[in-house]
Amino acid sequence: MQIGNLNKIINLFVVGFFVNAIIVLFNLYVYPQNDSRLILFLQKFDSEASVVLLLFISIPVALFWGVVVEALTEVWRWELMHAFHPKLDEILAKLLTIHSSLELYRIFCTKMQKALQSLSIYNDDSIAAPETKQGKEESILPTRYWTNIAAALLFRHGTKEQIEYAIQHYSMYLLATNFASILIGIILLWAYFMSPLQIKLFGVVVFLVVFYFLIRYATDKYYFAYAHIYRFAYIFAREKLNENKK
After folding, report:
1. Is-contact 77 92, C-beta < 8 A?
2. 26, 71, 15: which is closest to 186 by C-alpha?
């Protein structure tokens, strides 16, 4: 599912400015103030005009880092992981203790697909994949196809509030996974540069706990967003079926 341009831009800038802040803090800690080129560069901006110039410089840099993080995060987001590991969602749900969200997602996914299949106008035989199961041939349509149909129905027939509700949850899923990607980098930097060993281990453990809750939050928002989309498509299809019977 795609999010609106405003949500996407805000997401990129929030993530990008967060990376900028990490870079500044990293330079403050790792290098003595007199040896850090970044800090010496920032010290030159001591007037109002310089601050405005620095702001104009930081905006495109933040946008750049936002796009970089988004590109890296897209590699391991659930859509790609599902393509290689169909049962990964079940494992994640148990590890993240969000099995109820997964069940809601699956229930409405199944109901939505069956309801839309009953409407012949949404069937596409060209993507059907006939499979033989216990001697009985069944036509299995890819779930991703029906997910795209359900999302299209929401954006075409849903109210503004219903669309925004789905977008808000999906936007938070994207933002949380982006922060999780940044946190991976923070953990690596912390483990490499921090000392002594006790502080290094303590920091890594704290960051891993934060990473766990970020992934838990992101996955829950993902399931909730699509459960909302499936629920709308299911209700829409049932109403169409009832109209056809009259």
Report:
1. no
2. 26
Domain assignment of residue 232, given as a range: 77-245
Query: Does one domain contain both 162 and 103?
Result: yes
Assess whether 111 and 229 both reside in one domain.
yes
End-to-end CA distance of the chain: give it in Å, rounded: 34
Which amino acid, 143? Answer: T
Question: Are 41 and 91 contained in the same domain?
Answer: no
23-39 per-position pLDDT tens digit: 888 877 766 555 566 66
Residue where a domain stops, chosen among 40, 75, 110: 75
Packing angle of the helix pair 160-193, 143-157 (nearest 10 deg): 130
Cα separation, 169 vs 223, in Å, equals 9
In this prediction, residue 128 has a pLDDT band, given cuts at 50, 70 and 90, of very low
Boundary of a domain, candidates 31, 49, 75: 75
The residue type of 116 is: L
Give the predicted TM-score (pTM) of the model. 0.82
- Does residue 64 sit in the same domain as residue 148? no
**What are 165-192's pLDDT values in tens digits?**
999 999 999 999 999 999 999 999 888 8
Residue 115 in tokens: 């309801």
Enter the DSSP assignment of 96.
T
How is residue 69 written in tokens?
Answer: 């993080």
